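If you are new to this repository, start here. Below is one unmodified record pulled from the training split, so you can see the exact layout before writing a loader.
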Amino acid sequence: MNKTLAFIAAAALALPLSALAQASSTTEKAAAKAKPAAKAASKDKVVHVKGKQHLKASAVKAVEETTPVADDAVLTDNDIEVAKRVFTGKIQCELGADVTVTADDAKPGFFTVSTKGAKYRMHPVESRTGAIRLEDSRAGAMWLQLGNKSMLMNQKQGVRMADECQAAAQVAFAEEMKKNPPKALFEGADAPKK
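And here is the target side for that same chain:
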């Protein structure tokens, strides 16, 4: 009976040790596999977003690529009228850059504005100056269309992505401005009386 009791005690002690050895072996294998992944992850840039978790750039990119752009902006009739005046197509800019503006046939008033790897979903936003202004508020991008030129800006990054962009109608408008320049602000004002 003592031999049986000793055998049971030895088995009871050996069982957790063998399980521990097997777990240790599995852990070592997992650690060996994780080392290359950890090295690759350490090369990945960390994105710091104010008030949010710090995420790896690859994770942010993956989420952005799979998340559809929200079309929650409600456009007014005035916005739709402004959208009709937006120049579309491939528009040449300074320094060999170009911007492509494409109207969304399925959702009138919305546009896809793209340049060198950047792509924005934009819609008209009221402008007090009379300029045509398209915005992607989520990305912080803005397309500003004036009579003689347009520009693409990313306000979040604080950069002008493309400048001096001109569609055919804007080139003609710029030429007309050269031939018939607008009056200066005080041109033709009465001279002060003495």
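Two things worth knowing about this chain: The beta strands are 46-47, 55-56, 89-92, 98-103, 111-115, 118-124, 132-136, 141-145, 150-154, 159-165. The mean pLDDT is 76.
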